[in-house]
Amino acid sequence: MSRSTRAAGALSACAIVATIALAGCGGGGDNAGQADAIKVGLITKTETNPFFVKMKIGAEAAAKADGAELMTAAGKFDGDNASQITAIENMVAAGVKGILITPSDSKAIVPAVQKARSAGVLVIALDSPTEPQEATDALFATDNFKAGELIGQYAKATMAGKPAKIATLDLAPGIAVGQLRHDGFLKGFGIQEGDPSVVCSQDTGGDQSKGQTAMENCLQKAPDINLVYTINEPAALGAYTALKAKGREKDVLIVSVDGGCVGTKAVQSGQIAATSQQYPLKMAEQGVKAVVDYGKSGTKVSGYTDTGVTLITDKPAGGVEAEDTEFGLQNCWG
């Protein structure tokens, strides 16, 4: 990514962030030299995950359009709470009006968030809420329950009354995003936790290799599985690999959530039947605008803003609204 020249204070902040191996500072474009430009901070979990790369692109474009100066930082790895805390402190010291953050640890980040808010900084969570959610001024994110519900409804309609033998390849215990998607899927399919149609449940951490292992374990436990729910598309592709090794890839329905470009192409190729697509670019764009509005008027955004979710499939099911993979590829990330 190109780096624009900064005023001395902003350069100092970037240098501090760089020493702790965060993602650095960027954005601002032609407005970077304006002393009165509103400063906006963006802190993501990592700088390598395509989801967060797309989020950063959206924030950069929105900052440039609004004449704002963007500072960015990221953890060294997913779960790096210490680096996110340091980034918050540096951004507050640099005079940002607001910080957009995808919290790596929804609980541990709260004291740093509260300290920033006490200093008059607007803090908005993107994608993932803090715990409690009210620790930030606002949350801009996918309705993960709805994302799960959509693929549950799709799976139910596609099964067309055929008895289901379901495997759920989940995220990990205690993570809100994973639980919401799981619960939404169950509701969309019309069942409750503990229903006997769910014959196997495994955690994958959203990882492709772990998804493959989880699917292999489930097939050992219940060889007649015919429907697989996955927390995300990497887990779905892992499941597909395991099913293909058993010659089952064509008679098992796989549904997922995320809508990244790799996952959307997997829907297009038929490896995944459908996915619920979310929009990180929109989260960032709306977040930057909220901070700029706060800087100009003092008006704070509050509560939850749903940034949208769309079911993507090339095999539509009756009664379930969806878009095809052409739409999905035009709006995917990664």
UniProtKB/TrEMBL annotation:
Signal peptide per UniProt: 1-23
One GO MF term attached to the UniProt entry: carbohydrate binding
Domain named Periplasmic binding protein is located at 40-295
Q: Would you tell me the Gene Ontology cellular component terms?
A: cell envelope
Q: Name one Pfam family in it.
A: Peripla_BP_4
Please give the Gene3D superfamilies that the UniProt record associates with this protein.
3.40.50.2300
- Keywords for this protein: Signal
Q: Where does it live in the cell? A: Cell envelope
InterPro entries from the UniProt entry: Peripla_BP_I, SBP_2_dom
**Presence of the UniProt keyword Transcription regulation in the record:** no
Any idea what this protein is called? Sugar ABC transporter substrate-binding protein
Q: Can you name the source organism?
A: Planobispora takensis
Q: What is the lineage of its organism?
A: Bacteria, Bacillati, Actinomycetota, Actinomycetes, Streptosporangiales
